[in-house]
Amino acid sequence: MIKIRDIINAIEQVAPLPLQEDYDNAGLQVGDAGALCTGALLCVDITPDIIREAVDRGCNLVLSHHPLLFKGIKRLIGHTLQQQALIAAVKNDIAVYSAHTNLDSAPVEGVSRVLASLLGLCDVVPLQQLTEKTMKLSVMVPEAHAVQVREAMWRAGAGRIGCYSDCSFSVKGEGTFMALEGADPYVGRIGELHHEPETRIDVMLPSWLRDKVERALLETHPYEVPAYEFVRLDNPLPAGLGAVGRLPSPVDAKALVAKVKDVCSSPVARCTRLPDSAIERVAVCGGSGGSLIGDAIASGAQAFVTSDVRYHDFVDYRDDIFIIDIGHYESEMCTKQIFYHIVSEKFPNFALYYSELEKNPINYL
Known about the structure:
Blueprint: H1 4-14, E1 27-30, E2 40-43, H2 48-57, E3 61-64, H3 81-91, E4 95-98, H4 101-104, H5 111-118, E5 122-129, E6 134-142, H6 146-155, E7 169-178, E8 193-206, H7 210-220, E9 227-233, E10 240-251, H8 253-263, E11 270-271, E12 279-288, H9 293-298, E13 303-307, H10 311-317, E14 322-326, H11 328-332, H12 334-346, E15 352-354
Parallel strand pairs: 2-3, 2-15, 3-4, 12-13, 13-14
Antiparallel strand pairs: 1-4, 5-10, 6-8, 6-9, 7-8, 10-12, 11-14
Helix pairs in contact: 1-12, 2-3, 6-7
């Protein structure tokens, strides 16, 4: 039987909550993670209609991109659509889970990464890479147990660098210690200096996996008191907001706009003036990406696809980069496909539904 917690764990393996921005409120918003899950409804935004649709479909979980609860609520009396949706979710035992900026920054199936893939971009990297979320763990292990400890740390998530797994560095040496009264040494005797052939193992890990990797280390290390240290690094993770890559071959600006509109099912696109030269390097950011225009320019991108760009940004950057502004909803519709792929890959026979009632709240006339 699949529990709501199982679905959440599958999503957070791809988009860990520590990846979210400080202002965000991703995660389980309503409901009991320990309840059996009868099905999940996928959407971008949560409204009372979405909750009713979940009830009608027999789903007790709604997976959304935008959080239902973003800022604090001081009263719950049904005067707003948000309050009405929240009341309906609680009354009908519907759990609500949102993956927002953590899904935006996810290294593999992040929103901008998927958008870049849909546009056919190659050699894609984050536009604004995350830093200060990487650590190095160094641990001294008796040689006979080095393989066991190393593999336990790998299983816990350490040793992943870019598209490579099971990464580590080892160097052999000699450790010394003297067990004092009250100790229970694995090797050596109380009161005697002991020399032990040891291996120092270094692995890298994202900071949010520290506790998990540390537990794996302590559970497999034979020493009563292992010697190890965590060091915070400035190395960028292969994760972050936005994405930038290159097209297989240069295209003119009109062709690129047509491709963007087709991929995102957007009837219109607001653009700066069309450049004369062909475009090959393209940056993208699902959602409101105006704050990343400078990063897009710094990355060498000739075009930037995003939404909610301010008028003055069109004025200020018109000579620096070709801006293609599509609708916010259009730029993030792919989140539903991301949810579907993550969950169906882990639970192939689980009941997943795309919302049929959700519509773009913006109409183009």
